[in-house]
Structures are given as structure tokens and as C-alpha cells.
Amino acid sequence: MGKLAFLQSLTGHAGRVWSSGWHPGGKIFASCGEDKTIRIWTKADSGRWTAQAVLADGHSRTIRDVCWSCCGQYLASASFDTTVAIWDKKSGEFECNATLEGHDNEVKSVTWSRSGNLLATCSRDKSVWIWEIHHHEDQEDEYECVAVLNVHTQDVKKVCWHPHEDVLASASYDNTIRLYRQDTMDNEWGPSALLESHSSTVWSIAFDATGKRLASASEDRTVKIWQEYAPDNSLGIPCPDNRPVWKCVCTLAGFHSRSIYDLDWCKQTGLLATACGDNMIKIFKEAADSNPNEPTFELLGTTAAHSQDVNKVVWNPACPGMLLSASDDGEIKLWQWNESD
Amino acid sequence: MTKTKQNVSSVQYRFGTVLRFFHSRRNFSVIFPANKMTELENINPNVYKKCEDRKLTIDDENEDVVDPFDEREVFDLIRNINDPEHPLTLEELHVLEQSLITVDNEKNSIDILFTPTIPHCSMATLIGLSIKVKLLRALPPRFNVTVEINPGTHASEHAVNKQLADKERVAAALENTHLMEVINQCISAPLK
Predict the structure, then answer these.
(1) Is the CB of A61 inside 8 Å of chain B's CB atoms?
(2) pLDDT tens digits for chain A (341 residues)?
(3) Residues of A92-107 as b/e, b for ≥16 C-beta within 10 angstroms?
(4) Any idea where the MIP18 family-like domain is (chain B) (predicted)?
């Protein structure tokens, strides 16, 4: 067992905090919410986290999501105002130096690829867009839309890149998860896998460190673990078109009493954290004697974390066990997971 | 087919336009069956008697008595919401009934079932949203409010319930000033 120890509560946003994202160095994070602002938080010498900057003029409606690029130089924000803003600090201060337009409706999620050259966005308009970034020395960066993927039949809630490869995953109100990759022949982006099992909206998805597994969180109050099976897998699972297939290998049911809005799979510790509409954060881990093709996950801890829905949980990428949560109650909280209490 | 687009009443048309913002475009026909778009849907709805006002008891005035939220109190908050089409309240149309409200004050949960006047009512999402907004404003934020269609009383029951349960889409709808005007009209107390 273990315990999620409370470190600090951060207030400042007016109203619901929708999302938050760690800088890859783990010493800065950004948060956003219905007050249309982005806050950049850093750790002061006293050890307390404080807002270092408030970015208030980028969007005209709710900011639904924020994400740092893997190089740490750029921050992207997705808004209900249908745009995505790209912020950087080249001038010394955070400035919005590009606005990506094109979605017909609210943008729900934004994510940078591992390489840093690709950005993905998704929207209420049912589409997923992939943008390529052309960096120029001493000039403005250029963003080119290289794919508009219209495979989902409903509102797309979340996009997430694979940890090593240029493979994108998206989750939707249509209850499915889709994977996309580039065709090796013509370099065109297209759907490569369909993951069907949830019975309601899929709110969030996260890969594990290997990228061969994916966890998903849904309105149907379950978490599912999906496993990739490549062609010629030892189990004899058929792979049509010689493409890897994804199978649901585990369903965590009965643990959550309301919609699960987010989850994050820690790349360092393997811990899986979930954010739920019942105000709880739960921590799961794969059992030591678990069969990889029928894995068992154990609930390690439950914390009544907030006074309203928890919207986001995200593990610190550099500091193992440090967790950030954001809630409808307007607060952001920092936690430290301690193994064996 | 004698009815044509010329027969569209201005009220109908206005709501139709506004609701477009809330419904996803491709799904529009599910929520708005085409043949229902051009006429007032339920011309002669059944009208029911209002219930009597709640009687104040001595305990109600005693500040020392803990007074948790109950079904009657929640019903009183929403019974006077106006129907989008008729100059009647949701109580008078039996869209809302106290017996279809469940309150668990301890668990911070309120579940409301509402009954559209007809199974193809295109206003179902708007009515549900009005109930949500009213309670969002009136109740402390600790409550989780679920608003669903009384099972078996609407053709697109599942789609409407899913839409109303999606807090992200509700939040986006509430940022739509046109839609909020309509909802505020429904929520405001009827003219005496």
C-alpha cells in the first residue's frame, strides 16, 4: 500500500480549473480554466509553489487544455473559442506568437509529439488535426496543417501522442478510441486502429512508458487497459492488413462512483492515477504476479482530494510520485505518493 | 402535406436557430425530426393543477434546527420554470413532478427525471438544460445534479441524457449568449 500525501493547495483561478500540464523539467507547470487565463507556476526558494505569470489575453472563451512541448520552449493552449494559441518566452516574457485556426467548434485538447515537430488538436467538430511545425532561426515559426482526420462520429475529447513514435491516439463522445499513423508509402496520415469497448464517452487516454499499452477513462465509470499486439504475435491474434491490433485486456470496474474525467500513467513508476466526478483521486498499479495478457491492477489508494469534480491528474515527469490535480472547486493541489506507509 | 415552411411561427424558428449551437450538426436530425420542425409540436398539451405552497412549520423558522435539502425544496426551485413553447410552467404541464425527484443531501446528489409532453419533443434538451442552470445557480456547488428524461417518454432519450450529463458540453453551451438568453427567459418567474 501507500499514501498520497498532500503538499500544497494553489488558488488563483476564478471558477473551474479544467487542465494543467508539467513543463518537461518538472519545475514549472501551467494551468487553465473557465476564467480564460493560463497561470504559470514555479517553486519559490521557500519550497512553496507560486504563480509566476498570468497569461490573460490569448483567448476569448474557456481554456480547456494546456500542453508544453517536449523541448520546454513552447506552451500550447486549446480553447472553446475554436483556436489554439502557441506561447513562447523568446522575448523574455511569455507571449502568444501564433494562433492556429481552422476548427469549426470548441477545441478540447492539444498535445505535442515526442519529436516536437508535430502538434495535434481535436474538437467538438468531430475532427482531429495534425500540425507540422517549421522552426526558423530568427524568424517566426510556421505551422502547417498536414492532416484533418474525420473518423470519429462525435465530439473528440482528447488527443495523446505515443511516447516514442509518431502515433496519435484520440478519444471521443462516440465511445471509441482511434489510433493514427503515417502511411509509409505516401506519408499521408490515416486511422490505424479502432478501440471499442467503452459504453459511454471516453474522456481521457494515456500510454504507459513502453507505448505498448494504453489506459482509458470513461463516463461509463470504468478504466480500461489496452494492449498492442503486433503481426506474428505469439498468441495468434489476427492482424488484418498486417497492422498491430489493440485489445482490451483489463477493465477496472466498480472503483469509481461517477464519471472518470482523466487519468495519467506515470512513465517512471508505472502508477496509474484517476480523476473522478466523485471528488476522488485513486492510484492503481499492476500486480507483481500479473499475467501480461490478462493483467491484474490493484487499487493502492483512494484520496478525497477536492470538494468538487476532479478534472485533471498529471504526474511530474522529473520527480517520481509527485502528482498534480485540478478541480471544479477552483483549486490545484500537489501531492506526493509514498510507497508503503 | 399542406404545411410548408411559410407556416413557421417566429417563436419556433427562433428556438430552432438558437438550439443549433447546442446540438452537434450531424446529429441535428435525431433531435429535430424534420417533419416536426415547422409546426408547433404539441398544440393542446394537457394542463394540470399546481400544487399548494409549502406550509411553513415552526421548525422552519427555528435557526437551530438542521434543515437539509429535500425533494420538496428542490421541486419548489424548478416547478415555475416556463415551458419554451407555452405560457405555462413545467409543473402545469407535468414535465416535472415532485415524485420524480430524488435528493440525497448526505451524498450531495440530486437526480431529476422530467417527462417531455410528447415523445418527439425537440425542446427536451433545452428544458433539461434550463433545469440544470436553475439548480446550478440556486444550490451550493457541492451538489451533483443529474437531469434525465423519465425512462420511456422520449424517442431520443439516450442522446438527450448523454448530452445533459456531459459537463463540458453544458459548460460550452452556457457560454453561448444566444442560448443563455433563451434559458434565462425560461427560468425567470412567469408574469403574474
Answers:
(1) yes
(2) 789 999 999 999 999 999 999 999 999 999 999 999 999 999 988 889 999 999 999 999 999 999 999 999 999 999 999 999 999 998 889 999 999 999 999 999 999 999 889 999 999 999 999 999 998 777 788 999 999 999 999 999 999 999 999 999 999 999 999 999 999 899 999 999 999 999 999 999 999 999 999 999 999 999 999 999 999 899 999 998 888 999 999 999 999 999 999 999 999 999 999 999 999 999 999 999 999 899 999 999 999 999 999 999 999 999 999 999 999 999 999 999 998 75
(3) eebebebebebbebbb
(4) 72-148
Closest CA to A112 of A56, A156, A74: A74
Contacts of B172 in chain A (CB under 8 A): 62, 80, 106, 124
Is B123 contained in some domain? yes
| Cell reading at B12 | 419556433
pTM metric for this prediction: 0.89
Grid look-up 427555528 returns B62
Q: With an 8 Å Cβ cutoff, are B162 and A329 in contact?
A: no
What is the C-alpha separation between A199 and A260, in angstroms, rounded?
A: 13
In a domain, B63, yes or no: no
Residue B88, domain extent: 69-187
Domain of residue B92, CATH code: 3.30.300.130
Question: Is A60 in CB contact (< 8 Å) with chain B?
Answer: no
Alpha helices (H) along chain B: 10-19, 28-31, 58-61, 71-78, 124-138, 157-165, 167-174, 177-187
Residues forming beta bridges with residue A264, ordered by sequence position: A273
Q: Is residue B112 part of a domain?
A: yes
- Please tell me the total count of domains within chain B: 1
Interface test with B, best of A172, A308, A310 (most B CBs within 10 A): A308
A61 to chain B nearest CA, in Å?
A: 8
Question: What grid cell was written down for A40?
Answer: 504559470
Q: For residue B141, which residues of chain A lie inside 8 Å, CB to CB?
A: 307-308, 328-329
Closest CA in chain B for residue A36: B175
Of residues A106, A258, A329, nearest to B172 (C-beta): A106
For residue A19, the chain B residues in CB contact (below 8 A) are none
